[in-house]
Specification:
Elements (H helix, E strand, L loop, with lengths): L1 H30 L5 E8 L10 E4 L2 E11 L6 E8 L9 E6 L6 E6 L12 E2 L1 E3 L4 H26 L1
Parallel strand pairs: 1-7, 2-6, 5-8
Antiparallel strand pairs: 1-4, 2-3, 3-4, 5-6
């Protein structure tokens, strides 16, 4: 009987700890959020690895998220809607690009602020975009390039002997 009471008390302590952790995580998640956001548009050639909810960063700091992605049937580009924290005002010559955390890390969207004295209005568009770079296409270029360079180097070496 004493064992049963100990198990019930231990279970209660574990449940209290789990509830305290959930409250702590909820409070921590809301600390970084500001009063509101405003939307900007951007059109990308490729948004590979990006989905609604993906993080938008500036200087490594999260400043927003991707809220919507649709394929433009006229241009065949991916049109994205970006929600930016309302306390962040971006110059109208800012750039937006798809980046990765390391070689095999997850993709995120990065904003590189410009130097213009004029700011992008809410609902405006960032026109300077760079889509995702395919790791496979880069590797194929590297492998293809070194194969050609290696055979030319070997032929030149054989001719000099």
């Amino acid at each position: 009987m004493a064992d049963t009471r100990a198990e019930v008390v231990t279970g209660g302590v574990v449940l209290l700890a789990a509830a305290a952790f959930a409250v702590w995580a909820g409070v921590g998640a809301s600390l970084g959020k500001t009063g509101g956001t405003y939307d900007l548009k951007a059109s990308f050639r490729s948004l590979q690895g990006i989905a609604p909810g993906s993080e938008v960063r500036m200087s490594g700091v999260a400043v927003g998220e991707i809220t919507k992605i649709v394929l433009n049937p006229q241009t065949f580009f991916a049109d994205a809607t970006v929600a930016i924290q309302s306390n962040i005002q971006l110059p109208d010559d800012s750039a937006i690009l798809v980046s990765q955390d390391g070689l095999l890390g997850g993709a995120y969207v990065e904003i590189v602020p410009g130097g213009s004295p004029m700011n992008i209005e809410p609902g405006g568009e960032i026109t300077d975009t760079q889509g995702a770079v395919s790791l496979m296409s880069l590797l194929m270029r590297f492998v293809g390039g070194s194969g050609n360079g290696g055979s030319e180097g070997a032929a030149a070496e054989g001719a000099s002997q």
